[in-house]
Known about the structure:
- Helix content is 37%, strand content 13%.
- By secondary structure, the chain is α+β, with helices and mostly antiparallel strands.
- It has a four-stranded antiparallel β-sheet with strand order 2-3-1-4.
- Helix 6 (163-171) packs across helix 8.
- It has one domain (13-215): Transposase IS200-like (Alpha-Beta Plaits, 2-Layer Sandwich), CATH 3.30.70.
- The protein has helices at residues 30-42, 51-57, 94-113, 133-144, 155-158, 163-171, 178-181, 204-215; strands spanning 13-19, 71-79, 82-89, 126-130.
Amino acid sequence: MTTRSFSFEPGEFYHLYNRGVEKRIIFEDAHDYNRFQQLLYVVNTSEPTDFRIIKKNNNSVYNFDRIDRLVSIGAYCLMPNHFHILLTPVQEGGVSTFMNKLSTSYVMYFNKKYKRSGALYEGKFKAKHVASDEYLKYIFSYIHLNPVKLIQSDWKEKGIKDVKKAYEYAGNFKHSSLLDYQRAVRAESTILDAEPFPDYFQTVTKRKAELIEWLQYTE
């Protein structure tokens, strides 16, 4: 078992991520992506949650009145075989409780749907403490540009072939929070609570400029 070199503290920021065991696909179709996004919202409460009951009692799960949130989510992106979440704890132990509820709920859903058993993820979720403004600002761009790998996997090494196309693809990717930062009107926007996070980009135009600058960067 890997022991973290830090603890999750309210007021601090963390980049969480995990991928499928043996790099397997963990989101097979749009419904899988949607379920994970719904769970990002639904399980973010210290109260017990039963997805089926919540869905039955609300015309949209995003109308579920959460009590005593565990974390504030600032950004996320779901890729076919992994996910990224940027968050900050709202209460002591909030991150571990949130991730345990999220993982357990999704694995139960996935295994039942695909008639499988056993582990879905490659061990316990990974986490990095985002300890500086520079790193935090970068992580927002890193997470939101992940979908570009789906149309050009080597863009960081070889450079983007079409910057406009790459930005539009990332900006329209439904399973990322970039749409919400571009002021899209959708229920999924309630997943985010950007208030605790520094507002490095006061306008959509400034955020776009930052992302395009990263797209033009090569390692």
